[in-house]
Amino acid sequence: MINGIKPLGRSLRWGMVGGGGTSQIGYIHRSAALRDGTFTLLAGAFDIDAARGRAFGTALGVAAERCYTDYAAMFAAEAAREDGIEAVSIATPNNTHFAICRAALNAGLHVVCEKPLCFTVEEAEALALLSKQKGKIVGVTYGYSGHQLILQAREMIAQGLLGDIRIINMQFAHGFHHQAVELQNASTKWRVDPRFVGPSYVLGDLATHPLFIAETMVPALKITRLLCARQSFVTSRAPLEDNAHVLMEYDNGAIGTMWASAVNCGSMHGQKVRVIGEKASLEWWDEQPNQLRYEIQGQPVQILERGMGYLAAQALDDDRIGGGHPEGLFEAWSNLYRRFALAMDASDRDDQAFLDNFWYPDVHAGVMGVRWVARCVESADAGASWVTF
Fold this sequence. Notes:
There is one protein chain. The chain has 389 residues and is α/β, with parallel strands linked by helices. It folds into two domains: 133 residues, 3-Layer(aba) Sandwich (Rossmann fold); 197 residues, Dihydrodipicolinate Reductase, domain 2 (2-Layer Sandwich). Helix content is 35%, strand content 22%. It contains 13 helices and 14 strands. Strands 13-12-11-10-6-9-8-7-14 form a nine-stranded mixed beta sheet. A hairpin with a 2-residue loop joins β10 and β11.
């Protein structure tokens, strides 16, 4: 259990690109990074408006001279300082991620990046190669994966409690964008603009979250091919989809389905992952993240609760309070940032043995998400045809 003791003998010097006062996601990055004392926020290029970014940064306690006009200025100035930043988080619109991530790695910085890493498989693979060459960590903020019971499911599946996996059902289908809310909401407007988000909306913005959770639960299974159909029910969003269905085949003969939607009227969040084996099934729902359903045919449903002693050690390591007390998304993000810090420290110490056996959403998870979205778009644009993954 996490008890407030710093996991490292130091605090990583940290900066941010984006995440300013008008950002939807900036606060959860800062809350997660600063919570366990593993990072200290020392610099930032917080806003495309430099004056507004400086005012925001100084209000956070960042020195005015370390609130920069843009990321390039920050990386150059910080590299010249003895106390310059060691890591940076990227919380900007999607179309900027590749350039900023590449520049950060070339500046010798560890990176935490919002997904997607970029728009093309070629760019994603280039970032993975650069990360390896520079010996720097790239963490991807699949924030929901920080919930502990996902690792409980991973352990139960590895133990064979479900038997051979037959079906994986995934969905992230909410209803908040069932109308053209982007006409009044700037934070939604860019998410449905191909110039900023690339070739997809809900496939990239929503579906990659349960996709990564399923990969975490069942890491041995590999997608061999997929078929995707997508729709733009709010027609002004075309060519970007606000609803999509994907059918996948895995290398063991299992099948997977994904439903991603922003027009599922009445649904608050609707993110679920259900793994079905020959013996039993597991289901996790992000609106009830402290519970995991374990269902054996012919027996009463078992609800496994976070924080209980009957869980696997991996599912208890990141607890911040005992069972019965609910933990939420901020705790899940904090768990990931703690893991990012441990990975960065191991990389700096060249502790490859630690990294080989340590789980976190890494650059390869980011590459996988980019590849999956690209294949889905390829399939959908070819009339919902099967494509090799």
